[in-house]
Amino acid sequence: MTRAPLRLLALTAAAGVALSFALNAADPALESASAKLEKLESGQGKPGETIMFTPAEINAWVAVKVPEAVPQGIRDTRIELGTDTASASAMVDFPKIQESRGKSVGWAMAMFQGERPLKISVREASYGGKITVFLTRVEMSGVGVEGTALDFLIKSFFLPLYPDAKIGEPVDLDFNIDHVQIRPDGLRIIIKK
User: How many angstroms separate the CA atoms of 39 and 67, rounded?
Assistant: First the structure.
């Protein structure tokens, strides 16, 4: 073999490796979110410090962590932030979620067979090391539910899936967090002074 084909082969191999590396490289937003979470979890936040997660960081983290937690039944997750509010949307198949957890699908859950667009909206209140999350609206396949009907859905479907969830109840914040602020430009975590 002459040197020209060897160089071409070497360049092609190098380009292939570089392309493979680029395609598998971590998302900078995910890396940033992970570093901030590590800082919180390791107690490295300084007293009074604000650690902010941007919408891009939150969505990058959710895109990786949701499939790890629920390998079947949820895709195309998206988080949107407002002032003290947040919305999560995804394509969801409730029976597949149940089955992936090794649970049987009851008749009520079987009514929701098939993938559907789901959007959940919450409002939060946070102070003094506690946070309360209020579920304000659930929208499935374009049909919104609020008020008494939403309370029924929470009791009948959500709490059986997540029995430890605290909806509308204050919960202690971990990692020396004083309070949380949700704003359109990001989620602010304020460390106790």
Answer: 23
CB-based contacts of 8-17 (< 8 A; 24+ apart in sequence): none
Instruction: Answer yes or no: are the C-beta atoms of 50 and 183 closer than 8 Å.
Output: no
Q: What tokens appear for 36 in the block?
A: 């901030």
| pTM of the predicted model over 0.85 | no
Confidence of residue 172 (pLDDT cuts 50, 70, 90): very high
- Other beta carbons less than 10 A from residue 187's beta carbon: 20
Map residue 108 onto helix, strand or coil.
helix
**What single DSSP character describes residue 95?**
H
pLDDT of residue 1: 47
Q: Where are the domains of the chain?
A: 27-191
* Predicted confidence (pLDDT) per residue in 66-82, tens digit: 999 889 999 999 999 99
- Indicate the pLDDT class of residue 162, thresholds 50, 70 and 90: confident
Distance, CA of 99 to chain centre: 21
List b or e across 112-149, with b for residues whose CB sees 16 or more CB atoms inside 10 angstroms: beebeebbbbbbbebeeebbebebebbbbeeeebeeee
